[in-house]
Design goal:
mainly alpha; 10 helices
Amino acid sequence: MVENLYVANIVLNAVLCFTSLTLNGATIYALRKTPSVPKPLKVLLLSLAVSDLGVGILVHPLFITRLALESRLQAALRTSFPTFYRVSFFVIYQLTFASFFGVLSLSLDRFLAIHLHLRYQELVTYQRVVTAVISVWVLSGLIPLIWLIPIDIAYRYVLLAIILVSCFVVSGVLNSMIYATVRRHAHQIHSLQVQPTVQGNAPNVTNASRLRKSTFMTIYVYVLFLVCYLPNICALGFISFYRSLAVLEAVYQYTFTLVLLNSSLNPLIYCWKLRGVRQTIMNTLLNAISSQN
């Protein structure tokens, strides 16, 4: 029974590895070729897509290898293959935290965009966003070093859960405020649309509509992260207090697969909410089909 659970999880991760590579590769190409996406937003989306692509390139294969070895040995890798366990642990958490903080950065960027208005372009510059993205990746590499702290493993899980929950709460507050503001802007857009004779309404409506789509995209990305990450956080909490229960390890492995599933779903949201990205991908596919004919 236990071996069948391992096999099913391996097959599931193999499928998700392919979808993550394909969808995020296409998204990165489309974002680079789409001029309509503002540069700061494009940098944040590219960072998130690169981390999701890294999940397909590295995390899925490492997790599949870990599942295969543990199913064969019926033992934890931290004692059987400690070097492989440490390397895979660092890579997995580096990329998953990069995705996690990428969503937080995206939420903060859209919050500033709808609250700063004209000052947004002055304060949120391309160079500052690039610096923020580099900082996110550095921070994502430092967090796995928690496991080097000489404390009980239960406290390490608790510390990790505190970091995750804190970021989720901050992102949740930001997205709640974004949603309330966007709804208010929607009523303003409607009032502008019913006044066609007022000069300058069309550009205002267009800009507001684009901002509204990008902010809703951020909300959907956050909700998706919430759905994919919360079961894993709960599993970490239970493991920290009930390490003797073997069933928790199997539950944790499937909740971690749910976390990795997020990397395959994010590109679908970008294509759904960003018309320019969707159009670029469609044009690329049509050109590829026509060239083969």
